[in-house]
Amino acid sequence: MTPILEARGLTKRFGRTRALAGLDLVAEPGRVVALPGPNGAGKTTFVRAVATLLRPDAGSLQVAGIDALRHPARAAGDRAGRAVRGGGTGHDRAREPGAGRPPVRAQAPAGAGGRHRGAGAAAACPGRRPAGPHLLRRDAPPPGPGRQPGRRPRLLLLDEPATGLDPGSRIQLWDAIRQLVAAGTDVPLTTQYLDEADQLAAGIVIIDHGTVIAAGTPAELKALAGDDVIEVHVRDAEALPDVAAVLSAVGRDPRVDRARRRVRVAVDDGTRRLMEAMRVLDHGGAGVEDISLRRPTLDEVFLTLTAKPAGAAGQPSGPAAA
Fold it and tell me: What backbone phi and psi angles, to 5 degrees, belong to 144?
């Protein structure tokens, strides 16, 4: 099966800033691929390269088997590299690279009171199936259920679409994305929300300093953080030092969150260590409100990996397969 995206050694500089530093990535079709990373990691630069809105300085990039650097117009299809923007009129599109035509404009559906909102995929090529990748900017979320267009794009690039949305709107957005994927649209998704990646993505590729530092399924990435976590909540923040001392005896690197009256510690052999901690804490009368054993969250994995130098633990050998 031909990968929907295949990037090898992509580099891009903006003056002295190296936005992409030899990025390698392979994305298989039929899924959401999440691309989290810190601000300035190179996520949006990569997505814009896929949409043929900018040209990398070096490397290779295949979009659905087409060389996007040698044949950008073919890779983007007959209506290339469209960027749908929200707010205002909600209908501007970027100039189509390689097509030699003026910008194409498509009107977004009207919202309450006739004002136009960010239309996402709905603004792209109404009345026909779009051939090229669509870049949906972070200020223009896709349409919710019931507002999707009659034709779907083959590839929809989402650049932090949930930024600024309330929880209910985020859930609607996730439902719309799942419907698009079920109908055959491939979705690379840049995001700052690791719970969003956990909810939607079959594969996650973490980007930092313009390169891939870790890739895999959500479960595989959680395993990178290693051990289980024991988490203890106490009634009185004054008990936190005593609880941290107990947990340091059964695990490693206890972390105290005084504002939430919580202590976390990484452990191996989690069930046995949990029982040990419970016996000691119960005997000491530390005023424990809650104690739990869990796997690391993607947020914890992300913080662990992005705190390391680029290319440290978690770096795949060869292109990151998502």
Answer: -75, 175
Give CA–CA dist 172/146, Å, rounded.
Answer: 11
Are 26 and 5 in contact, with CB atoms under 8 Å apart? Answer: yes
Q: Return all residues near 13 (Cβ < 8 A) that are at least 6 apart.
A: 19, 57
- Overall size of the chain counted in residues: 322
> In order along the chain (322 residues), what is the average pLDDT of each group of 10 residues?
90 93 90 90 92 92 91 70 35 32 31 34 33 51 47 82 88 91 90 87 91 88 77 88 87 86 84 85 76 82 68 47 59
- Please check whether residue 208 is in contact with residue 21, taking contact to mean a CB–CB distance below 8 angstroms: no
Per the listing, tokens 């969003």 go with 196
With CA atoms as reference, report the closest residue to 65 among 2, 10, 155: 2
Quick one: pLDDT at residue 81? 39
Burial class from Cβ neighbours inside 10 Å (0-12, 13-18, 19+) for residue 272 reads exposed
Give the rounded distance of the alpha carbon of 267 from its chain centre: 28
Any idea where the domains of the chain sit in the sequence?
A: 5-222+302-321, 228-295
Quote the CATH superfamily of domain 5-222+302-321.
P-loop containing nucleotide triphosphate hydrolases (3.40.50.300)
Calpha distance 317→126 (Å, rounded): 42
Give which of 199, 184, 205, 215 is closest to 29, Cα–Cα.
184
Provide the whole-model pTM.
Answer: 0.65
Task: Please determine, looking at this structure, whether the domain spanning 228-295 carries the CATH number 3.30.70.100.
Answer: yes
